[in-house]
Amino acid sequence: MSKVVDISANEERMDTASRWILRMDKGLSDTEQAELRDWMAAHPKNAGRLLSMAERWDKMEDMSRLAALFPEEGTVPIKARPTLRWGIAVATVLVIATAAVWLTPRLDTDQPSGTASIVDHNNIFETAIGEQSTVTLSDGSVVVLNTNSLVHVAYSANARVLRLQRGEMHVDVADDASRPFSVMAGDRIVQAVGTAFSVEITDDKKIELVVTEGKVVVGIHTPSNAPSSIPPLLAQSSTNTVAAGEEMVLGVPDETATPVSPEEIEVKLSWREGRLIFNGEPLEAALAEVERYTTVEFVFMEDGIKTREVTGRFRAGDVEGLLIALRINFDITHERSEDGRVLLSSL
């Protein structure tokens, strides 16, 4: 006896679940909540698909809303209660499990090979495309490396020096006033004692600095500072200091510290939790960011869709989840070329 799999039904269920996720982000009216209840009760797989889609798009808040929408068994038909009870239980477990993943500090034993705590004074740490890694240095400072990044660490009795050769990292600096902590990127020095900040070398070789705690001082890395030398101790002034809640782009004519909101910082540093957050960025810019975390290349078949604004949270590297969102939310479809590129066009 042959088995027939209803592919169209599965695709329709996936599309409907995606639409509900998008509608939940905007808030559901009483009527929409009733419609959602009816849809979840209509088939045993609907609740599971909705929860799976919420997890895939990193929608913890939506899973919490699902549990809140169905606090009592009497709110749904009796035939749907076993499925719904299972769905709420799964939602609760997923919220707890996902929160544990995001909130539990990464231990050295969980890190990829070669990223354990530093013992020697000279170490090189590198991440591949799509990989993030946490490194605890010998002084207790914590470095989180983003995708495709390379950093050289050199500690001595009177200095702590990190040389970022490519990519992006966030540093939570352990307090040690006797040993200045310096990050060298390109021809710039970022120096701090007891603070937290991120540094990125962009594709156009600019240095983007965001300070999340304390303050840092920036300066020029002159040719006389050989790779093995200790950077000079920088004097602090009003023009070279970047404080918490500020950012600065180095390597541009106007190197000025500018305020950045907590929401913007969350977006800029969401990669530390394996997420990408977009708040109205043009699709072309958003996909350029996505490409940093995958070997997939996106190709626009129509110029008109490049400027469409993207808002949402996605797991870094989850190309399939992103493509579903583009189809559901922006009416953008895709095909794959023989060489693996994703070709985007309007529906």
The CATH C-level name of the largest domain is Mainly Beta
Beta-strand percentage range: 25-35%
Reported CATH architecture of the largest domain: Sandwich
The biggest beta sheet is recorded as: 13 strands, mixed
Task: Compute the average pLDDT.
Answer: 78
Counting H and I runs of at least 4 residues, what is the number of helices?
8
Report low-confidence residues grouped into runs of 5 or more: 1-7, 72-121
Give the CATH topology of the largest domain.
Jelly Rolls
What would the principal axes of the Cα set say about the shape? elongated
Total tally of structural domains: 3
Through-space gap between termini: 38 Å
Number of distinct beta strands: 18
Which class of secondary structure composition applies to the elements? alpha+beta
Order of helices and strands: HHHHHEEEEEEEEEEEEEHEHEEHEE
Q: What is the percent of helical residues?
A: 25-40%
Describe the fold and architecture.
- This protein is an alpha+beta fold and 347 residues long.
- The chain has three domains: 97 residues, no CATH class; 156 residues, Jelly Rolls, CATH 2.60.120; 73 residues, Phage tail protein beta-alpha-beta fold.
- It has eight helices and 18 strands.
- The strands form three sheets. Strands 1, 2, 3, 4, 5, 6, 7, 8, 9, 10, 11, 12 and 13 form a 13-stranded mixed sheet that branches. A three-stranded mixed sheet has the order 15-18-17. Strands 14-16 form a two-stranded antiparallel sheet.
- α1 packs across α8 and α3 runs parallel beside α5.
- The longest helix is centred in the N-terminal third of the chain and has 23 residues.
- The chain starts with 6 loop residues before the first helix and ends with a strand.
- The N terminus is likely disordered.
